[in-house]
Amino acid sequence: MSVVALSFLSFLAAITLLGAASVFRSKKTTDDYLLASRSVGPGLTALSSVATNNSGYMFVGLVGFAYASGLAAMWLQVGWILGDMVAWAWLHRRVREESGRHETATLPALLGTSRHGRRQRSVTVASALLTLVLLAAYAAAQLNAGSKALNVLFGWDYAVGAVIGAAIVVVYCFAGGIRASIWTDAAQSVVMFLSLAALCTVALVEAGGPAALFARLQSIDPALVTLFPEQRLFGFAPWFLGFIFGGFGVIGQPHILVRTMALRSASLIPQARRIYFLWFIPFSAFSVLVGLSARALLPEAGTGAFDPELALPQLGMSLLAPVAVGFLLAGLFSATMSTADSQILACSAALTHDLAPRLGRSYLMTKLGTLLIAGGALAIALVGPDSVFLLVLMAWSALAVSLGPVLLLRLLRWPLGPRLAIAVMAAGLVGAIGWKYGLELDGAVYEILPGLVTAFAVYAFAYRMGWDLEDGPPEGAHAPDEAAAKAPGLEVG
User: Fold this and answer.
1) What is the C-alpha separation between 70 and 329, in angstroms, rounded?
2) What does the pLDDT look like over 358-371, one tens digit per residue?
3) CA angle 218, 221, 222 (to 5 degrees)
4) How many angstroms separate the CA atoms of 247 and 452, rounded?
5) How far is Cα 275 from Cα 46, in angstroms, rounded to an integer?
6) What whole-number distance in Å separates Cα of residue 467 and Cα of residue 429?
7) pTM for this structure?
């Protein structure tokens, strides 16, 4: 067995054992399986959230995007981080408070709970169905990311990598639920950070430093070192604003928000936030720099046969010693598993807790739901699209524009009846899909922004007309339009 394979497999074994060890802390209840009994500390919450958020998208998708687009790719991450900061400043604390107040264990259950605690079953079901479909596709993208790396390094068929990733995730998630996922995410986040930092450092040294790297890129194509991208239909500002809303799209991601719900106390959010961004910001810079380095240093760069999403493992193989290559591959595989396990668990919870709550009362059936969802995600990975970048952006935006507006309205405690909640979800999806596939304007503005605008436009119109409002506006709040307070059927609280 080669040194690369040995170091890679050793890491996988260690991670699998760490996740499996969580079974000794398990209380064998559905609440513990889904939320770790709301006992997670801020450090674990932060590292798990950041690993889950960044996933194979950072190692494969973003590196490939920087390889193809050049320095302008940095704006995607700058906008994404700004949007994520807004969410951490306002959203996460309220999610923890409201989920605890209403004793909800999943995001669909929270979305289906009115501000006065009334259960709206149809909203929960609709949210759970969206979670199942979209997160399964998202998890498949992560399995694809890992399989691409194994194909480059070992020549294995894509299916082999996807099967290995799914099997490892099932082993430790089946053993300890979200606690196993959080424990392994924290360990994986450290490996992800160190491996990417090491490759970035070696690549910059090989290129002769940042100035020499940019000189090489300019000689290849001056557009690669252009700070502001050209030929955007509406200009730079709307394009950049779209990525800010992309980062804010965490408002619709069940697999990330469930980590906030599992936090020991809402008062720990500021501490978790600091740790989160201390990891996220430099890691984003490393990803972009690795993509740029790959474009400058790889001899096959720029050829039509080269897949940009394979830039990171290709660069690692050309610059690093075998042991380090195995470690880098472990980091990439960590990124895929840290997100795939979270998404599979979120889908399992949606299936057994929200769609079939009788099954959710059984600890065994909840665990079997995890096995079923993992099989579905693997099937999508084997037959679905190959592009990690496109799959992730599609699933992320669809969840953001459908579940996100309803969550914001719940947290703002604005009145929202079940039919209107479902209409808002549908409007967000129609707006985003129409923008991306109908108008084909996603290259000018990321579709989350028009999707959210459409969703809230539908809510504002319904508010004005007094349609399907469960009760009046929250105490001390102002209606979107003063005339709405006088609309027929609207009862002001």
Assistant:
1) 24
2) 776 777 787 788 88
3) 55
4) 13
5) 6
6) 20
7) 0.85
